[in-house]
Specification:
The complex is a heterodimer of chains A (291) and B (175). Chain A is an alpha+beta fold. Chain A is 34% helix and 24% strand. The model of chain A has no long low-confidence stretch (mean pLDDT 94). In chain B, a hairpin with a 2-residue loop joins strand 1 and strand 2 (33-40). Chain B is an alpha+beta fold. In chain B, helix 2 packs across helix 5 (161-174). The radius of gyration of chain B is 16 Å and the shape is globular. The chains are: A alpha+beta (291), B alpha+beta (175). Chains A and B meet through helix 2 and helix 6 of A and strand 4 of B.
Chain lengths: 291, 175
Amino acid sequence: MSKFEYYRPKCLNEVFKLMAENHGYSLLAGGTDLMVKLKENLIKPTAVIDLDGLEGLKGINLEAGRIVLGALTTHTRLEQSELINRFAPALAKAAGLVGSPQIRNKGTVGGNMGNASPAADTVPVLIALGAEVVLSSKEEIRTIPLEELFLGPGRTVLKPGELITTISFEVLNHQGCSFQKLGKRKALAISVINASASLEIEPETKVIKKVRIALGSVAATAVRVSAGEEILIGNYYSSELIKKAAEEVSKAIRPIDDVRSTAIYRKRVAEVLVGRALEEAWSQVTCTRGG
Amino acid sequence: MDVPWKKPGAKLPVLEGDKNMSKQTINFMLNSQKVSAQVESDSRLVDFLHEMGLTGTKLGCGEGDCGACTVIIDGQTANSCLVLAPQIDGKEVTTIEGLGSYEQLHPLQEAFIEEGAVQCGFCTPGMLLSAKALLDENSNPKREEIIRSISGNLCRCTGYTKIANAIEKVVRSKS
C-alpha cells in the first residue's frame, strides 16, 4: 500500500476543498473495492478522503413522489428499508445479493456506482427504475440519467472534484420491477450476468406502456437493451411475447469471454434471465401496492 | 497467554512507532475499553489489531472474500482487512477477545465446542462474531437466517452444518 494522508471531513464543502488541494485523491465510501485496489497497488492516491462523516448522504427518503437515496446508503440499509421494500422490492433484492453481510454492511450504493464495475448488482435495477444521479462539485450540481454515468469498467463521467451525492427514481403506481442474478455461488459471488426489467401498464387496458430492460456483465458497462423493450411496448403481456423479447435481448447483446464466464454462455443465459426478469416484473405490477 | 485487556483496570498499549510516518491519534472503544492510539494513516484495522497483541482476528485473503478477519464495528460485522485503522476513530469495535473470557466462555463459544463446530479453527473467530452480530439483532433467527449470517465466512473444514447447529443450539437454549 502506498503512503497517503487520511481525511474524514464532516461536510461537503470540506470534501470539495480536500479534493481541490489533493489532486491524487481517492474517495472512500464503504471501502470494499477501494481497499482491494490499494492492497494490490492498482491505485496510489496521495490522499484518501473518507466520506463516512457526511451523515446527510446516508438515508432513504420519499420526496414528492420520488425515492431519494443518499449515495452513502449501505446495501444492508437498502435491503432492510421499509420504503425500498414497499416501493422498489427489486432494489432491496439486488442489494441483498451483493457480496456478503460484511460487504453489504460497508458497501454503499454510490460507491457501487463510482466503482463502475459492469457486474454491479444495484445498477441494472436502478437503470430499470429510471434512476437519475446527482453529481456535485464546488462549481455545479448536475443531474444525469444513471446509464450516462458509466464510460467503461472503472470509468465514469465524474470530473476531478466531483462526487455522486444522491440517486433518485420516480415511484409509479402501475409499474413492476425485478432483479435476476446468476453467480457461481449463492453468496460472495460476483455476477456472471444480472438482469432487471421494469414494466409499466395502462391501468384500464393493461397494455404495456413503458419497459426498461437492463443487464450487467454483458458489456463494458451496464446496458439497456431497447431491442427487447420495443417488442413489448403497446402490447398485452403474454408468455409468447416475453419469450420473443428475451430472444431479441440475447441477439442484441455482445458479451465477452472473461475470468467469470464466456460470451456464448452469457448470451444463452441472458435469454433465460431476461425472461424471468420480465415474468417477475409482471407479477409485481399485477399485485396491488400502497402509495 | 497473558491477555492484558482481560485484567480489571489493565491499560492497552499505546503504539509509538516511527515518528516520521504520517500518524494520527484515534480514540475508540475496543472490547468495552477506551483506547487512544497512534496509527499510520495507511494501516489496516486487522494489522493494527495484531500490533496491539490482539491476534485472535485472523487474516485470510485480505480482500473481503473469506471473512476470517471479521470484527463487529458499531454493531455490524465488517472485514477488518477492508477497514483503515483511522476509520475506527470514534467507533466501537468488538473482536474475538471481547467475546467471553478464559474463565467464562460466551454461550456461542461453548456451543461451538459442544457441537464440534471447530476443526482447524481459522474461520472460528469470524464465525463467532458473525453469529454474535446476528443474535444481538435477532434473538430468535430461523435456520435460513443463521446460514445467511455466516455466508460471508468461509470454512473449508466443517461444511458449515455443525457451525449452524451450534448457533441454533444457543438460540434454542435462550427461547
